[in-house]
C-alpha cells in the first residue's frame, strides 16, 4: 500500500489506511496494525516520510480499536473524533493495548532502542547440554562391534549442595533487583509514545534467585567438571559416521533438571587389505598365470580369518568371486551378513626361465599359435582372453 501526504493535512479514511474492511473485527485490526507498524516504524524504515506514515497508522488504529470512538467515526467521520487521541501515543496506561503490541512487534530489533528480545525467567528445571565424542575404530571393530572403554569430561551435579550452589544449611534467596521475576522492565518515552523495555536481570542472570553463601565444593555453580571412564557397546556393522547416543552422560542439568546425552560419532580407520561397500567386504588377490590357467585351491584372508576358495581353470583377469556370508553384519540384525567380493589379479611374468619357455612354446605349437612379434609373453596374454 502506498501513502501520499499533501503539504496541508487532509483526513483519510482510517479503514483504508489500515487496509481493512469496515466490518473488520478487533483481531483483524490488530493484525493489520502490527504489519504496518513493523513496516513503517522510523527505527526500521529510514525512507523520507516514514515517520508521518507511522503517525497516521497509529491514529487510525487508535480510533478504530476503541468501540466508542469507532462508532462515532462510523457515524460522523473525522468530525466525530476530532478531539479524541492524538497523532502520537498516550502514556502506557492509556494506550489501549499499544504497549503490548509494540513490545511484541519490536522485541526482535536488538539495538533499535526498543530493547532486545524479551526473555522469560528460567526458574524451573533446565536440561543439561548434550556432548559429542569422536571415537576411532579399526576395520574389524566396526564389523563385529564389541565393548569399548572411553574417557569423557562432563559436568556432574555437586554432591555437597545437590545442585543448588548454596552452602549446606542455606538456600538461594529471591533476587531483590527483579523481585524473583528474572526480568527488569524500564519505561522509555520517545516522540512516538512510551515503550516498555524488558531485559534479563543482570543481578541474577534471569534465574530470579541469588546465592549469598556459595557452596565451597562447586563455587556456587551447582556442578563440577568431572573426568570419568565409560564402557560402551559398539553394535556389529557400524560404519563411518554412525552416531551412538549414551543417555544421561552429557552435562548435568540445572535446578534438578535432567542431564543431557552423550553422542559418540564413530570414525572407522582404513584397512590395508579390506574395503567396504555397504555390507559387503571387498579385497583383491593375485594368482600366478599357471594357477589361473590350471585352477587351484587357495586360502583367502577374510574378516573371519582364512577361508578356502576354489579358483576355476581358465580364470580371467579381474574376475570377481564371492564368498557368501563373510561380509559385514547388517546393523540391527547381526544374523544377516553381506558377502566378501574378491577380485582376481593375474601375475604374468616379464621373464621366464628356459625350461618354462620350452614348455610354453610346445603349448603354443599344440594350440597352433606360434609366437609372433609379441613373443612368448604375447602368447601368455592371449590365453587370458580366450576360454
UniProtKB/TrEMBL annotation:
CR-type Zn finger ranges: 145-227
Binding positions for Zn(2+) 2 per the UniProt entry: 175, 178, 201, 204
Keywords, comma-separated and alphabetical: Chaperone, Cytoplasm, DNA replication, Metal-binding, Repeat, Stress response, Zinc, Zinc-finger
SMART domains: DnaJ (SM00271)
Note on cofactor: Binds 2 Zn(2+) ions per monomer.
Keyword Cytoplasm: yes
Span of domain CR-type: 145-227
GO molecular function: ATP binding; heat shock protein binding; unfolded protein binding; zinc ion binding
Record's subcellular location: Cytoplasm
Pfam families: DnaJ, DnaJ_C, DnaJ_CXXCXGXG
CDD domains according to UniProt: DnaJ, DnaJ_C, DnaJ_zf
Gene Ontology biological process terms from the UniProt entry: DNA replication; protein refolding; response to heat
Mapped CXXCXGXG motif repeat ranges: 158-165, 175-182, 201-208, 215-222
Gene Ontology CC annotations of this record: cytoplasm
Described function: Participates actively in the response to hyperosmotic and heat shock by preventing the aggregation of stress-denatured proteins and by disaggregating proteins, also in an autonomous, DnaK-independent fashion. Unfolded proteins bind initially to DnaJ; upon interaction with the DnaJ-bound protein, DnaK hydrolyzes its bound ATP, resulting in the formation of a stable complex. GrpE releases ADP from DnaK; ATP binding to DnaK triggers the release of the substrate protein, thus completing the reaction cycle.
Similarity section: Belongs to the DnaJ family.
Subunit comment: Homodimer.
Protein name per its UniProtKB record: Chaperone protein DnaJ
Gene responsible for this protein: dnaJ
